[in-house]
User: What shape does this take?
Amino acid sequence: MADIERATIRRIGWRLMPLLGLLYLVAYIDRQNISYAKLQMVDALGLSEAAFGLGASLFFIGYFLFEVPSNILLHRMGAHIWFTRIIASWGVVTLLLAFTPSAPVFYLLRFLLGVAEAGFFPGVLYVLTLWFPARYRARAVGLFMLASAVANAVGGAVGGWLLDQDGALGLAGWQWVFLATGLPAVLLAPVVFFLLPRAPESARWLTPDQKSWLAGELAAPAVAPTTGHSDIRATLRDGRVLLLCLVYIGFPLGAYGLSYWLPTIVRGFGVSNTANGLLNIIPWTLVAIALWGVPRHAARYRNPIGHAAGPALLGVVLLISSVMVDHVALRFACLSLAAAAIFSGQPVFWTLPPRFLTGARAAAGFAAINSVGNLGGFIAQAIVPTLRDWVGSDTAPMLFLAACLTATGLGVILVERRLPRPD
Assistant: This one.
């Protein structure tokens, strides 16, 4: 059985994770390209940092409003169909952003981008519960989220270079950023439809013994997988789900606040756009290493609390340290390590909902937690620039992010005690 287990997990990993990771890479680049485009787009649209940050943050409002309905439709229609719709629509909206003529159109398109992408991340989390036994999920989520680190590194290097192509073929640098990041999503849509595996029982590349072992491992008699509206409403009213929603806010808030503001901070070092992008590879390389190592360490020692709350609280220390040191290199080092800490606790956090949710309830629960939590991204992109404008320094935004992460770290510890113990 041990040989069957290893072979099954390895085969599922190779069939599922590269494609899902590629999709998340493209999604995250489309989501984060705004942090580089804004270096020119603010002046092009005649906006202040705060006004532009508000427009950028509208992505998360659209995301919040349509996240749960999107995940319910995914459960009913299948991931291959719904993910194809998601990636095609967000690619088209990103391409349209390249031709933004005014601030109102920018606001509308950012909102529509959130609507288009809603359901993708929690949809993947739900799909992973259909393929991976519980003890492998933190590692699977960590591998999936590695794509966000790669996306930020690639997006940083390419985004900075694209800004320096200002004027090529009569287009501004910020326009090239959106064109180059939107086109891959559109081209990947048919690939997703034909190549994304449907379900374990229909996978021809799994042997009967492997399917039998996996079905036994995924059986969850404690919670019946149902699709009724009453069960979904009950899930959304579940106090544990609501608590996880509130606790999760700090992770996206810290992650988006830091990733959105980091290129602007680095530009303050006096470097070119291209150098800015290359320097931003460093923190996301550290994030990738942390996303690979922390979930594995958590699975080995069966300690979700320490590996979800611990990184968040470490991020607090590093964010505060970044505003207390004067040397540019030390400040950048603190921010880079903070990014790694903030991201690395999230895969372990996502092992908490499946302790009490399965089936359609899991789809709705994942979507609710992610949609409410991602309001942290709205807060980060709206509040961080506003604080920067009010105070005139980077200190207040970093302390604000640190305070929110503190609440998240302590909240994870308190909420986990109310959940069923893992096997």
